[in-house]
């Protein structure tokens, strides 16, 4: 994925987009907290599912894949780029899950 270069006057660009009501919301610190909280929930779910799989001692393991990325206009110029980044995150999570399964975690 190509990363679009940041404009030399990013704050002016963002102010202009907000003035045209192209950006839905102003930047907020809570989005960073929400992103961290989502990662924490995903980690806890993975840990609990691994524990459940170990306790259940079935002939198979239950797995899931999730893709989460923070949205950034500077990183994702188009919806296609955003979806591509999410797809890559899902694939990365799936590969990590397979690696955990292979080593019996």
Describe the protein in words:
- The protein has 105 residues and is mainly alpha-helical.
- It has one domain (28-102).
- It is built from three helices and no strands.
- The protein is elongated, with a radius of gyration of 19 Å.
- 1% of the residues are buried.
- The model has no long low-confidence stretch (mean pLDDT 78).
Distance between the termini: 32 Å
Radius of gyration: 19 Å
Total number of distinct structural domains: 1
Order of helices and strands: HHH
Number of helices: 3
Protein structure class: mainly alpha
- Count of extended strands: 0
Low-confidence stretches: none
Q: What is the mean predicted local confidence, pLDDT?
A: 78
Name a few traits of the molecule:
3 helices; mainly alpha; single chain; about 100 residues
Strand and helix map with partners:
Blueprint: H1 10-19, H2 29-56, H3 79-102
Q: What's a concise summary of this model?
A:
The protein is mostly helical and 105 residues long.
């Amino acid at each position: 994925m190509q990363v679009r270069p940041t404009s030399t006057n990013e704050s002016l660009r963002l102010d202009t987009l907000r003035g045209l009501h192209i950006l839905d919301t102003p930047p907020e610190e809570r989005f960073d907290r929400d992103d961290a909280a989502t990662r924490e929930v995903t980690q806890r779910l993975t840990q609990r599912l691994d524990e459940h799989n170990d306790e259940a001692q079935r002939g198979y393991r239950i797995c899931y894949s999730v893709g989460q990325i923070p949205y950034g206009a500077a990183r994702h110029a188009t919806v296609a780029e955003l979806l591509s980044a999410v797809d890559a995150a899902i694939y990365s999570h799936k590969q990590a899950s397979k690696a955990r399964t292979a080593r019996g975690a």
